[in-house]
Amino acid sequence: MKLILDRIRVERGEWHCSAEGTFLPGIHLITGRVGSGKTTLAGIMAGVMDPSSGEILREGISSCMLCQQYPEYHVTGSTLAKEAESYGIVAKNALETAGLPGRGDDDPFSLSRGELRRFQIACLSLRDWDLIVFDEPFSALDCQGKQKESQRISALSSRIVVVFTHEQRYLPKTDYLWEMREGVLNYLGTVPEAIPFWDTAPVHVRMLLENGIIPANLTEEDIREGLCRMRG
Amino acid sequence: MIIARNLALRKLCIPELVIPTGSAALIGPNGSGKTTFLRILAGVLSPEKGFVSINGRPPGELRIGFVNEYPDRNLLFSRVLDEIAAPLRFTRAPCDEISRKVKLASERAGLSHLTNRRIHTLSGGEKTLVALLAATIHAPGLLILDEFDSHLDDQSLEAAEQVISASGAASVLRCTQNMDVASRSGTLVALFGGKVRASGNPGEVFSTLSGTCYVPFGWRDE
């Protein structure tokens, strides 16, 4: 099972981005500056957008889901129960997974944005997808939600999981590191070997690197362990 | 100074809260009432009971800049330049003054290259920065930022902080899930289940939250 981006290029007026690479099963983390094309690339990978040129090949991938940057974009049901059912899952399971038991009759827009994000991730993680693309899955979540969702994403590593994020602290256990630089997707390598070459590394990872420490991975526990080593 | 007294709306219940003038951050779990409180302060929502005042005046009598947590809900116009200029145009400010201020604000935020772009072509982070410029260009007395940082990388956040500093707002009240950002505010208010669990300087508030994920790395004994 693999996802291949073959000379993908997107052009919108003067703005452009391009990408090339092969995505195998595992957790792929992609970071980059605001406006570098991450959301565009997420849409192309998930098949909801077409590139200006190039080809995307999905070998052995029979199901795919995009977790959009804005949880409100996913909403199609007038109640949480109907929203869950629109994913083809049992509403009760989704509500319990999201920590919202008994709220099936509530309007999705009566939730806080973080609650809506939690509910949306619960809905899509209760089904089995060969390819899942997460666009900023941690935005709007509180720290407990970020901890929980990063662990949930880490547990999906038998599929192809692509995570685009600006999150600084709660990252999933990552297999492959990628970075958007000047509108081009760059493959940095496997984790942890690629970490020293990561320009947009989170602040605490940069702090560790400046002190000669390469964390074992990018989870909160890995960073905390690195900080302990740094402080002796 | 912001004062809330006997305040109640939905699950939000604040008998008494005083937030000194300056920078303040509201922290707490999803669904704890942070956005509700910010919207009351912005004058967008009315409380069921009680009142809030900002420097002794109700929200409606003050110039307030507000950035919504939903990036698309901030935006009224289809072109970036029109969105940033709108608060000045609404007051019928002279055209040359509007052009000068929009140019200066866009340059400061590193967004000059975007001013002629259609808003719908922007990324989430870019939309947030445009909303921040629109909220600050008219020199608000109080600037309210509802999780505006959740779509920004750390370099964009730095640029946003410069825009906030340059806005001249006497008070900046933000809600954030980034505790490193929160720790740089003069005052923190921790809201849990609609109630204020702690308020004060970051050291005081983080000490009451010891052992939870609401304490940033640098503030823990690790």
Describe what this molecule looks like in 3D.
The complex is a heterodimer of chains A (232) and B (222). With 232 residues, chain A is an alpha/beta fold. In chain A, 28% of the residues lie in helices and 26% in strands. Chain A has two domains: 2-63 and 129-230, Rossmann fold (3-Layer(aba) Sandwich); 75-127, no CATH class. Chain A contains seven helices and nine strands. With 222 residues, chain B is of the alpha/beta class. Chain B is built from seven helices and nine strands; from the N terminus they run βββαββαααβαβαββα. Chain B is globular. Chain B has a six-stranded mixed sheet, with helices on both faces. Chain B has a domain at 63-170: P-loop containing nucleotide triphosphate hydrolases (Rossmann fold), CATH 3.40.50. Chain B has helices at residues 34-42, 80-90, 95-108, 124-136, 154-166, 179-182, 202-208, and strands at residues 2-9, 12-19, 23-27, 49-54, 64-67, 142-146, 171-175, 187-192, 195-200. At the A-B interface, α4, α5 and α7 of A face α4 and α5 of B.
What attributes characterize this protein structure?
heterodimer, A: 232 residues, alpha/beta, Rossmann fold, 2 domains, six-stranded mixed sheet, three-stranded antiparallel sheet, 7 helices, 9 strands, B: 222 residues, 32% helix
Q: State the distance separating the first and last CA atoms of chain B.
A: 36 Å
Number of strands of chain B: 9
Looking across the biggest beta sheet of chain B, what order are the strands in?
5-6-7-3-8-9
What is the CATH topology classification name of the domain at 63-170 in chain B? Rossmann fold
| Largest sheet: spatial strand order of chain A | 5-6-7-3-8-9
How many DSSP E strands of chain A? 9
Distance between the termini of chain A: 43 Å
Instruction: Give the helices and strands of chain B as they follow along the chain.
Output: EEEHEEHHHEHEHEEH
State the gist of this model:
The complex is a heterodimer of chains A (232) and B (222). With 232 residues, chain A is α/β, with parallel strands linked by helices.
